[in-house]
Design a protein that fits this description.
By secondary structure, the protein is mainly beta. It has 2 helices and 8 strands, in the order ααββββββββ. Strands 1-2-3-4-5-6-7-8 form an 8-stranded antiparallel barrel. Strand 2 and strand 3 form a beta hairpin.
């Protein structure tokens, strides 16, 4: 490399480093758009999550004038009761009997969504798009009368999902950066905890399930 190119490369490197680690206030305002919190409720045909509810938080960025990116955290949970099976020992299934069982299930995870967001003015914003989700699930089942652990095969690894989302944000006063937000979404979750046995344990978290979800919340724009 010629010596006269070294100062130029050094100057460019320093300039890029300064831009990345010391962004100007204007650049920060253009990139970072909103922070919000919301209440959420879902419905599905899943036996343990027919109508879970919970909360979440989201960060939203607008770019290229008509696109919007959203990263959100969701936590949904539900308790169910039904006739189940309780055993004294599950490795060899000793002394099993029917009993009313209670199952507590929590599904939580991160979602990334890319949306088209047409310009509808300062007080209304719509977004339509889809993305991926990365989830974890915890579940525990016990016999209501005995208090013993009930028959249940629960996931012990991460779960991948897919989302489709329609969002809306209404800003009542354009000079105040607070908006009411709402959304309707579909969330397909690939539960893959299947035993593969001829006489399997109770395995509700096996296969793909679709959740219809609504969100209602508030957001603050920066």
């Amino acid at each position: 490399m010629k010596k006269n190119k070294i100062p130029l490369l050094l100057a460019v490197s320093l300039s890029l480093s300064w831009t990345l680690f010391n962004p100007s206030p204007l650049a920060s305002q253009q990139i970072f758009q909103e922070l919000g919190v919301f209440w959420t409720r879902a419905s599905s045909d899943h036996p343990e999550l027919p109508g879970p509810s919970g909360f979440g938080a989201a960060s939203t960025w607008e770019f290229a004038e008509v696109f919007m990116a959203r990263v959100s955290f969701h936590r949904l949970s539900e308790d169910t009761r039904k006739e189940g099976t309780v055993c004294d020992q599950y490795s060899q299934r000793i002394n099993c009997r029917g009993e009313i069982t209670e199952t507590a299930t929590t599904l939580s995870g991160l979602r990334t969504t890319l949306m088209v967001a047409p310009d509808l003015g300062e007080q209304l914003r719509l977004g339509l798009g889809g993305g991926l989700s990365f989830n974890s699930l915890t579940a525990e089942a016990v016999g209501v009368e005995s208090g013993l652990e009930a028959d249940l095969l629960a996931p012990n690894a991460g779960i991948i999902g897919f989302t489709a989302l329609l969002t809306a944000a209404v800003t009542p006063v354009s000079s105040v950066p607070v908006s009411f937000t709402g959304s309707f979404g579909l969330h397909w979750v690939n539960f893959s905890t299947c035993s593969g046995e001829d006489s399997p344990p109770y395995e509700p978290y096996c296969g793909m399930d679709a959740f219809k979800e609504i969100e209602l919340g508030l957001s603050y724009a920066f």
